[in-house]
Amino acid sequence: MKSSTGRWVSGDNFFDRENELRILESRVRDGNHVLLTGQRRMGKTSLAQELGRRLKMEGWSFLYVDVEGATCPEDVIADIGEAVHPIRSIASRFAVTMGRWVGENVEEISASEFRVKIRAGLSGSWQRWGRELIGSCAEHDRPVLLVVDELPIFLMRMLRDEEEGVQRVDEFLSWFRSLSQGFQGKSPVFMVSDSIGLVPLVQRLGMPDRINHLHPCRLGLWSRHDSVECFKNLAESHNLPIDEGVADAVYEAPGVGIPHHVQSYFAHLQDFVVMRNLDRVKIRHVLEVYRTELLGPAGQSDLSHYETRLRNAMDEDSYRIAMEILAEAATLDVFMDGARHRLESWYSPVMGEAPRRIGEALDVLIHDGYLESGEDGHRFPFKLLKDWWLARFRDNRVPITDRVPEVN
Fold first, then answer.
1. Helix-helix angle 111-120:73-84, to 10 degrees
2. Are 154 and 68 in contact (CB under 8 A)?
3. Which of 91, 57, 82, 37 is nearest to 313 (CA)?
4. How far apart are the first and last CA of the chain?
């Protein structure tokens, strides 16, 4: 088993998730379109890629498209076109349909060149050509699975960057929904994968029906057993001796089982042992690496991405509210109803519908695994993320209830 941080895995390196994979595969084989959700670093991309690998072995065609960098629907269509390029029969059929913009000799150009040619011909007619492209997939002699990753980030970018952002999002989602119903059962199977909350987004915009054709599939946390077994497998595969209890300590330190962070913890411990010329990993090393590496400079890029993703998922006001909530939950160990009411009174004079915005911010934070709700309020389930937020705010933050006066 290879050590892998920051990239998807498949085949022999794909660990656990067999139950989720069976459920997902069953839905896809039955022709159901799927919404694959889960918080960051949970292995959604690896799950989708492993499903695609297995289906390809049985004659399916698998297309994976990451639209995080797309700025408009035309970019999304061009991205799908680039993914289609290696499947010559689909690419050639679409090239003939699009005519002079692409030409017929698909074999003579690269996938990136194919994308550029498609993009050049889409101005003002992305719906038509996008439908033609999906129609070419539908005419393929093999079943097709099309995974569209990070769709909410693209939608949020349209909301922020375009004057009629809500209308454009509605237009795109309505078009996308129509594709799943428009090819008489021959449409590719769509899987939308996201980690920043497509459901909270469409609910906030008042258009939840635009994704009701997608069957939800939530990817949850690893159990203690799975986290421990993965770490032990990594240690054994890399001939890294570990003391009894080390694998359990790796699970307990961050507090939850997230596949990426199990891999990341192992990589940091492996480096720690090599750099100090140690012969094995002890429990005290686990705690030292947690403090100095995972929470230190080496871990900053990974943890700061949690904040970046929130910024991408929210407008400016909602992001500001979310940061207040997270800072409160980190410094006081809980975000309580009293703080929520004070926050509502604080923001109501400066932004419209402050209570609704705070509720929506909490929905996103819960959906994406930053917080979980309990009897006394909202807390961080992920101790590593809480400790990172705490280190930033504990020395210069006044609790919300001490900063905002009561409103009679």
1. 150
2. yes
3. 37
4. 62
